[in-house]
Amino acid sequence: MSRRRQIYEGKAKILYEGPEPGTIIQYFKDDATAFDNKKKGTINGKGVINNRVSEHIFTLLGHIGIPSHFIRRLNMREQLVKQVEIVPIEVIVRNVAAGSLSKRLGIEEGTPLPHTLLEYCYKDDALGDPLVAEEHIACFGWATQEEMQDISAMAIRINDFMAGMFAGIGIKLVDFKLEFGRLFDGDFSRIILADEISPDGCRLWDIETNEKLDKDRFRRDLGGEAEAYQEVARRMGLFPEGGISEVLDLDSERKKRGK
Ligand code: TMP
Ligand code: ASP
């Protein structure tokens, strides 16, 4: 890791310069934060699982024509991605009321929404990523109207695909967050999916019991967060049967040796 130039360290990932111009390496940490960094902790093995989960989802999305920054997974905690200019908007996609929507509008958590709701937050930690309207995005030039059309159309397709995929493994996709970036080709740029899709940025509930299988276990001090992430990966069939613990043991072994 230290051989490479670090570009940026975020709350859950570190970005390093990639091997070729225009590429970046995303390193997935076990660090977890919530409530704009006010709550900090670690979830054992989270980075390894998120790397795999995100690889899997981005690859499947690629098969249905959603362009993304993902190139390939490099190892347990790293993936190679295309360098993009991140659009400073977090796109929240909701199927069921939960979290800040429930709080803000007094709608009971778990209430299914009559149709998929898209919300936009301006990415600014100091401001606490405030909810904004499309008018704000246009007014302040954070994204053009054409870009927002691409973003919202992709977000809906991603939701349709993911909701079906998770339903197939007994998981309700309550809501999730997406980030997009601009991929430049000379003077032109196009919008592609970026960042990651993992239990860090999704609400995933067991379809039968509504048990939470995502970062809300950490946010709300419910315990069992590492096991919940593993359960999602297990149901997705991402590790050989019974192999998650082996992979995580190998990872902690390597970490101890400082590799
Ligand atoms: P919220 O209910 O707190 O607004 O969160 C909606 C979804 O977006 C939830 O699945 C968690 C995800 N999310 C992030 O990934 N990062 C964030 O900074 C926020 C606020 C939400
Ligand atoms: N990731 C954000 C934070 O660190 C918000 C969240 O996921 O709750 O505060």
Description of the structure:
The structure is a single chain. The protein has 259 residues and is of the alpha+beta class. The protein contains seven helices and 14 strands. The protein has helices at residues 46-63, 99-105, 134-139, 145-167, 216-219, 225-235, 244-256; strands at 6-9, 13-17, 23-28, 31-34, 39-42, 70-73, 78-82, 85-86, 89-96, 112-122, 131-132, 171-185, 188-194, 202-206. The strands form three sheets. Strands 8, 9, 10, 11, 12, 13 and 14 form a seven-stranded antiparallel beta sheet that branches. A five-stranded antiparallel beta sheet has the order 1-2-3-7-6. The protein has a two-stranded antiparallel ribbon with strand order 4-5. A hairpin with a 4-residue loop joins strand 4 (31-34) and strand 5. Helix 1 runs parallel beside helix 6. The protein is globular and about 50 Å long. The N and C termini lie close together (8 Å). The mean pLDDT is 96. The structure holds thymidine-5'-phosphate (TMP) and aspartic acid. Aspartic acid binds next to strand 4.
Q: How many strands, which pairing sense, and closed or not: the largest β-sheet?
A: 7 strands, antiparallel
Order of helices and strands: EEEEEHEEEEHEEHHEEEHHH
- Could you estimate the helical fraction of the residues in percent? 25-40%
User: Overall pLDDT, averaged?
Assistant: 96
Provide a count of the helices.
Answer: 7
Low-pLDDT residue intervals, each spanning 5 or more residues: none
Q: What percentage of the residues does DSSP assign to strands (E)?
A: 25-35%
Count of distinct strands: 14
The end-to-end distance, rounded to whole angstroms, is 8 Å
The rounded Rg comes to 18 Å
Which structural class do you get from the secondary structure elements?
A: alpha+beta
Name the shape in a single word. Answer: globular
